[in-house]
Prior knowledge:
Elements: H1 3-15, H2 20-32, E1 55-62, E2 65-72, H3 75-88, H4 93-98, H5 103-106, H6 109-112, H7 115-145
Antiparallel strand pairs: 1-2
Amino acid sequence: MTIEEVQQEIVSEFSAFDDWMDKYSYLIELGNALPPLDPTVKTTEYLISGCQSRVWLVPDFRDGLLWFRGESDAVIVKGLVALLLRVVSGRTPGELASAPLHFIDEIGLSQHLSPVRSNGLLSMVKQIRLYAVAYKQISKSTEQNG
């Protein structure tokens, strides 16, 4: 599935819920299904700054694709992490560097999260894009030297 198709799937899933309590419950359910990170990677290196709760995003670059693992100590934020990972994992750095992530606005998250959580979500997206740019450069250097 493309990034766009995954985003449309998420929008469709959230449109099935009539009120935000149900959407929050679904977010919590998604977060609870996220596999826990190994404590050895819960370091400041992978900690996202700008989040009120603690959020870790761990990149793994293999076979030209970026994969992410993540976790948070807050249940709703953990659900946000699960949604983001669903959209961004298994993509090329080029895709991630330029893809618009519009599902956040389309499902209404921007309007229903506290300003601090919204900033945290933007910090996660920003960090994913930074990883994408860095790994794009690494793969470009490897191609030129290899």
